[in-house]
Amino acid sequence: MLSITPPVAKTVPYTFTHLGHELHDPYTWLQNKDDPQVIAYLEAENRYARESLQASQALQEQLFVELRGRIQEDERSAPEPHGPYAYYWRMEPGKQYRIFCRKAAREAAPEEILLDENELAQGHAYCRVRTVDPSPDHNLIAYAVDVTGALMWDLYVKDLHSGQIISGPISNTAWTSAWASDNRSLFYTTFDHAHRAYKLFRHMVGQAGQDCEIYHEADESFALRVQRTRSGAYLLLTIASQSSSEVRYLPADQPEGQWQCIEARRPWIEYYAEHHGDRFWLRTNEAAENFRLMETPVSAAGREHWREVLPHGPDTLLEGVYAFNDFLVLSERRGGLRQVRISAPDAVSEARDVAFPDAGYTVLLDDNPEAGSQVVRFHYSSLVTPEAVVDYTVKDGTWQVVKQVEIPSGYDASQYTSERIFATARDGAQVPISLVYRKDLRRDGSQPLLLYGYGSYGISMEASFNPNRLSLLNRGVIYAIAHIRGGSEMGRAWYEQGRLMHKKNSFEDFIACAEHLIAQGYTQADQLAIMGGSAGGLLVAAVANLRPDLCKAVIALVPFTNVITAILSPDLPLTVIEYDQWGHPQNQEAFDYMLSYSPYENVGQQAYPHILARAGLNDLQVPYWDPAKWVARLRTCKTDQNRLLLLTNMGAGHGGSSGRYDALRETAENYVFLLETLQIS
Q: Any idea what DSSP says for residue 522?
């Protein structure tokens, strides 16, 4: 029993009616960030949470030392060839942030420091550089900085010869920017009030005056992404919703020219473009749930000229297309695992899959900015194999490991094992589960287990290596990933079966995975913890409502729990653009369905597991008040004496702390809550 008293959120009556439902939300007042009482309440929750964890301060410090001992203090990325240079970042011992550098591609060339994130972070609780993008002549760099965690960036241009900032800050810029071939025209996107990338601008470096607005997307369900093709010949503007897309293109050497549309958007039809020679490669789901590969001449790009090259595969999801001068690379997914397919430039001849050494693994293709390269760079790991950066030579299929993640404090992969098993969902679907644990564990049902899940937006949870996880594995914890519907692990249908009017499949799949792990002797309910973040936080919060008896502990990281509040607030970031993900609030059937599972509205008068929730004060994706309101309602309704903790990062957003040591501190807090709750030292 804690000897301290949790803070109590004031109850302010607030009732509203929508589509025949009378809804009560007594904690709406927490949504006012400018109210000093709100900040005081969040700070009181923080004090209560840290005081409740104070008894385990020694363990928390021990965990932090362990976590820090597994990172390279002088870490650096694998140098990436790009034009006449190799670009990379490095970190120095004791420093939180990256230093971006390059070297000329000649022997013994001196290092050139482009940007020091540590200097940019001075005076800020948070700092993250989104990109460091050299101009085509490599004399300038464009970079974007976020110092709040809200994922809103200030864009700058730096002259690498003089070291001077010659443009910026250009505020409120969104996710993407791209250089034209004149080395002066920089295209970038900006956010609207709802954190949607909705406008494209052209900035002329060194030219005073207003930047030129190129495109304004008025439909609030669509967002923009601009990029320069690997060939360097074109700029692409992808305009996409959760269910439809269109692509516009501009010759990169004609920055003041007119953008042309490949094919106008159509409902529930997606396509994405990549340039090669005199054609565009197109990845589309038209008449192809798992997408198929098309080509069309640049000179006649409309749909009537599209030609199918690779047909739809019912067991193969086409995830990405990467065009090089002398070959084509496709990222595919089969049987839950990503495959890399390489062929001649026609996409058919000399086709082969890259062979990977492990039965279970994850592979991620790098940026590979050089179209003329004869190697493909990718990142490879598994649950027991630390990440390797690999250069794959296309001609002979040989591997060269250019960077291998090392664990300074030591790691012996032979001491651990991984598995891939399947649980049967309520409707008979076979749901994959990836597990990793120490080989010497007995499968007698007594082992603690942490089950992680996400299951939204078609994002697949990869079975990759995480050195932090060793602190759990070495204490006898089994780590498992539930590859539930809502992700794309088993193809596009896996995604479609976990969104909109099928969203509850995600929750039922996760419950089935937990029950299967218990039935197979991996763990038992009082030794099981569940964890998810963002939409994965929605998952574990919904599961806690449905089956509070399923587990002992819940860790909900920036959890999306106020589904109804969000979906009824079109001015909130990301709401309108996600109607195709969750449902439209003016549709009776869709609204009733969302209301039936929204975690906040379905908190009940029942006993709940121990719960740790995290929030970020500057979070625009899942506002701080979402987990705060959920915790407040839980405090009022729950009938148990289990711990309920809320930790709000008052200087960060959706991703938590930006500094590498600060991030490890947060991980240590999460782990100490887990270990303490499961009574593991």
A: S
Helix (H, G, I), strand (E, B) or coil at 372: coil
The CA distance from 401 to 378, in Å, is 10
What is the reported pLDDT for 637? 97
Per-residue pLDDT tens over the stretch 334-388: 989 999 999 999 999 999 999 998 888 999 999 999 999 999 999 999 999 999 9
Rounded-to-integer distance, Cα 78 and Cα 89, Å = 8
Containing 515, the helix (H) or strand (E) segment is: helix 504-519
pLDDT digits (tens, 9 = 90+) for 379-423: 999 999 999 999 999 999 999 999 999 999 999 999 999 999 999
**pLDDT score recorded for residue 1:** 44
**Quick one: pLDDT at residue 105?**
85
DSSP three-state, residue 373: coil
* Catalytic (active site) residue 534: yes
C-alpha–C-alpha distance, residues 405 and 407, integer Å = 7
For helices 588-597 and 504-519, angle between their N-to-C axes, nearest 10 degrees = 30
Residues 249, 2: Cα–Cα separation, whole Å: 61
Cβ neighbours of residue 358 under 8 Å, at least 6 residues apart? 382, 385
Instruction: Let me know how long the chain is.
Output: 681
Q: Which of 592, 590, 657, 647 is nearest to 624 (CA)?
A: 647
Strand partners, 453: 482
Cβ neighbours for 659, distance < 8 A, ≥ 6 positions apart: 96, 97, 121, 127
The long-range contacts involving 401-405, CB below 8 angstroms and separated by at least 24 positions, are: 402/78, 402/79, 402/377, 403/77, 403/78, 405/72, 405/381, 405/465, 405/467
The CATH class given to the 262-269+286-406 domain equals: mainly beta
Which residues are 200's β-sheet partners?
A: 189, 215
Catalytic residue among 135, 619, 626, 657: 619
619 annotated active-site: yes
| Two structure tokens written together for 601 | 């509205």
User: What's the mean per-residue pLDDT of the chain?
Assistant: 96
Dihedral sign of CA atoms 625, 626, 631, 632 in order? positive
Q: What strand order describes the sheet that includes 279-284?
A: 271-276, 279-284, 292-297, 307-310
Helical spans, DSSP H, in 20-85 = 36-52, 57-69
What is the reported pTM?
0.97
CATH of domain 15-68+410-677: 3.40.50.1820
Query: Which is the catalytic residue, given 534, 598, 657, 658?
Result: 534
For residue 451 the two structure tokens come to 């089950």
CA distance 539 to 413: 31
Is the CA virtual torsion 383, 385, 390, 392 positive or negative? Answer: negative
CB-based contacts of 304, cutoff 8 Å, min separation 6: none
| Domain ranges within the chain, ordered by starting residue | 15-68+410-677, 262-269+286-406
User: Rounded CA gap, 401 and 386, in Å?
Assistant: 12
Q: Are 87 and 80 in contact (CB under 8 A)?
A: yes
422 forms bridges with which residues in the sheet? 432
Of the candidates 203, 610, 654, 657, the residue annotated as catalytic is: 654
Q: If you compute the radius of gyration of the chain from its CA atoms, what whole number of angstroms results?
A: 25
Q: What pLDDT, in 10s, does the model give residues 554-584?
A: 999 999 999 999 999 998 887 999 999 999 9
Rounded Cα distance, 440 and 416, in Å = 8
Sign of CA dihedral 38, 669, 515, 482: positive
